[in-house]
Design goal:
The chain is α+β, with helices and mostly antiparallel strands and 97 residues long. It contains 3 helices and 5 strands. The protein has a 3-stranded antiparallel β-sheet. The chain is elongated and about 55 Å long.
């Protein structure tokens, strides 16, 4: 089964098509606001939970020795935070129906 890819403009188009009461500009502004809010919350080390969808949080990755694939040399990668998403039980179940 081929994997279909959907980007933000596809989501905006589909929501606009499904709901006649919102314009494409309104939907795009709303999605951008939601993404901005989630990003800002994560930057402040807050967890964002969307019921029946999943939760976004920050995880910490320690400093480590890695390898440059092009040159084959060892490189130290600094410690950093990275975003983490955990799908809800309902989302997992809906994918496996």
């Amino acid at each position: 089964m081929p994997i279909n890819k959907m980007n933000k403009s596809d989501i905006v188009f589909n929501i606009t098509k499904k709901s006649n009461s919102f314009s494409q500009v309104d939907v795009e502004k709303s999605i951008n606001t939601i993404i901005e809010f989630i990003s800002e919350s994560l930057a402040m080390n807050n967890r964002v939970e969307l019921r029946n969808f999943g939760s976004f949080s920050i995880r910490f990755r320690n400093k480590r020795l890695s390898r440059n694939p092009k040159m084959g040399t060892s490189v130290f990668v600094e410690a950093k935070n990275y975003p983490y998403f955990r799908a809800s039980k309902n989302l997992k179940q809906s994918l496996n129906k």
